[in-house]
Design goal:
224 residues, mainly alpha, 10 helices, 4% strand
Length: 224
């Protein structure tokens, strides 16, 4: 019995992300981008013009931590959805060592992978660590409500850590977006929720085999 995620047609299609997952992802993505823009505007005077997106510096400063809370809650939802699928496995180590085959378009030389490949898993766990640290350090310096909970030296360390982690997180996001564009069909999967069977066979063959045997993804709360 095949999975309800598989659909015959020309071409045959596979449900990759349900509507709730896609909504969760885009809330997280938009929140992160808004945080990056407001954070950069407040961090560097040369980028202060970005506060215009938020209606001025005062608004950017007030909205930044609030959007941070939205990001933390939204990403928590994504973490709960995807944590099982992102457990590191022995074949992921091999995949990372031979990742050049992805660039050369010779993925048949790589181990077959499940729904997420090693590169996606690295992004997932890097963002999990980064957003956790950003949330904690952000709370420490949210002086409007939490000023008396920590000392000035602690706040200084938190601001430095917040800035460094934010920089790394932005770089990870850029890599994530670039990879989604590079692997044609990936971006569309998070927009429409489906990929072709051919795409699945090329990039996530082990996942497709499991669905063909009747498996269903844990993160698919509802198919379609």
């Amino acid at each position: 019995m095949r999975s309800p995620q598989l659909h015959s047609g020309a071409p045959a299609t596979v449900d990759r992300y349900d509507r709730a997952t896609r909504t969760n992802h885009w809330i997280t993505a938009i929140s992160f981008v808004l945080l990056a823009l407001s954070g950069l505007a407040l961090y560097n005077p040369q980028l202060f013009f970005l506060t215009g997106i938020f209606g001025g510096g005062a608004n950017a400063r007030a909205l930044h931590p609030i959007i941070g809370v939205v990001l933390a809650l939204s990403f928590t939802g994504m973490f709960l959805r995807f944590r099982k699928g992102n457990v590191w496995k022995p074949e992921d180590t091999v995949w990372m060592k031979d990742v050049s085959y992805v660039v050369s378009g010779e993925e048949e030389n790589l181990p077959e992978v499940e729904k997420f490949n090693a590169g996606q898993k690295v992004v997932f766990w890097a963002m999990t660590a980064a957003i956790t640290l950003l949330f904690v350090t952000g709370l420490i310096v949210w002086d409007e409500y939490l000023y008396d909970l920590t000392s000035i030296p602690v706040k200084r360390i938190a601001i430095l850590a917040h800035s460094l982690v934010a920089t790394l997180a932005i770089l990870v996001l850029i890599i994530h977006v670039y990879a989604a564009i590079w692997v044609q069909g990936s971006f569309g999967a998070m927009l429409k929720g489906q990929v072709t069977a051919g795409w699945s066979w090329r990039h996530h063959r082990k996942w497709l085999r499991r669905l063909a045997r009747g498996g269903v993804d844990d993160d698919m709360g509802s198919v379609r």
